[in-house]
């Protein structure tokens, strides 16, 4: 059971397990870490006892999984419901999403907006933006979602809104830039959500390797040291940080 989920261990955990270079207590400790990180049973139990996605979101998830070569990038049903619930709690008027992909998380977040609310979402890839557009129409959300196509680093400064909620979910090496670009435009008491803050467990390594894991670790340290915000890192899926501007 544990070894079925070995792909989700950090590489030093993998090495130790494969080389059997740990004593019995360390081995059990590693298993606990691995199980805690992945929670396969907790994940499926949570899914079974959470409200399922609506039919359009189910169709979008299935379409993305069946047709997109990078389908793993979609938030997925459990996190999608969580994003919707967080948005409903905040009841935002203005949301900014960085990284539309096929539009899944945008629809989830838009469901929580108050009446008259608008979600702006930025995507680099035209193909993905086109898929998202078709699903925004299917979900009857197209009048409440403004799509921007291009590099978020260039587009964010052109948006003159005040954000109640920002969702960071584009290229990981730019997370600090996105945070610094958007924070001045987040209202006091407003929120930033950052996805993939564990970066497949690689950011948890003592010395993260690879530019994405290193960038995410640097982002996590950057946010933790920022006196302008308070934050909590949720060990949901690939790690999700809730940041509040104070
Ligand atoms: C992890 S996916 C987003 C997943 C989506 N939020 C969801 O949950 O369904 C990241 C997306 O960011 C886009 N992206 C990467 N770099 C970008 C950039 N510089 N500006 C805008 N979008 C970018 C990618 O093309 C990709 O579609």
User: Class of the largest domain, according to the CATH hierarchy?
Assistant: Alpha Beta
Separation of the first and last Cα atoms: 44 Å
Instruction: Give the total of beta strands.
Output: 7
CATH topology heading of the largest domain: Rossmann fold
Going by CATH, the homologous superfamily of the largest domain would be Vaccinia Virus protein VP39
Q: What is the general shape?
A: globular
Structural class: alpha/beta
Descriptive keywords:
single chain, 246 residues, alpha/beta, Rossmann fold, 2 domains, 7-stranded mixed sheet, 10 helices, 7 strands, disordered N terminus, binds S-adenosylmethionine
Folded structure, characterized:
The chain has 246 residues and is an alpha/beta fold. The protein has two domains: 3-38; 53-245, Vaccinia Virus protein VP39 (Rossmann fold), CATH 3.40.50. Helices cover 43% and strands 18% of the residues. The chain contains ten helices and seven strands. The protein has helices at residues 11-19, 24-38, 40-48, 55-67, 77-90, 104-110, 126-138, 152-155, 175-182, 211-225; strands at residues 94-98, 118-123, 145-149, 163-168, 186-195, 229-234, 240-245. It has a seven-stranded mixed β-sheet with strand order 3-2-1-4-5-7-6, with helices on both faces. β6 and β7 (240-245) form a beta hairpin. α5 packs parallel to α6. The longest helix is centred in the first third of the chain and has 15 residues, at 24-38. It binds S-adenosylmethionine (SAM). S-adenosylmethionine is lined by residues 73-75, 99, 101, 104-105, 122-125, 128, 151-153, 169-171, 174. S-adenosylmethionine (SAM) binds at residues 73-75, 99, 101, 104-105, 122-125, 128, 151-153, 169-171, 174.
């Amino acid at each position: 059971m544990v070894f079925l989920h070995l792909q989700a261990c950090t590489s030093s955990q993998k090495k130790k397990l494969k080389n059997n270079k740990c004593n019995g207590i360390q081995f059990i400790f590693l298993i606990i870490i691995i199980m805690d990180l992945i929670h396969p049973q907790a994940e499926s139990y949570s899914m079974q006892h959470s409200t399922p996605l609506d039919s359009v979101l189910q169709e979008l998830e299935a379409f993305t999984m069946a047709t997109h070569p990078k389908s793993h990038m979609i938030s997925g049903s459990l996190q999608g419901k969580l994003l919707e619930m967080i948005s409903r709690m905040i009841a935002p008027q203005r949301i900014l999403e960085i990284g539309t992909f096929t539009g899944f998380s945008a629809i989830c977040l838009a469901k929580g907006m108050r009446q008259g609310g608008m979600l702006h979402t930025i995507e680099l890839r035209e193909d993905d933006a086109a898929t998202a557009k078709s699903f925004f129409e299917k979900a009857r959300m197209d009048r409440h979602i403004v799509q921007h196509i291009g590099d978020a680093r260039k587009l964010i400064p052109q948006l003159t809104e005040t954000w109640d909620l920002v969702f960071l979910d584009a290229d990981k090496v730019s997370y600090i830039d996105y945070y610094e670009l958007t924070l001045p435009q987040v209202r006091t008491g407003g929120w930033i959500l950052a996805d993939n803050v564990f970066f497949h467990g690689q950011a948890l390594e003592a010395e993260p390797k690879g530019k994405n894991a290193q960038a995410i670790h640097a982002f996590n340290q950057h946010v933790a040291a920022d006196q302008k915000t308070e934050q909590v890192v949720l060990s949901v899926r690939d790690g999700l940080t809730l940041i509040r501007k104070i």
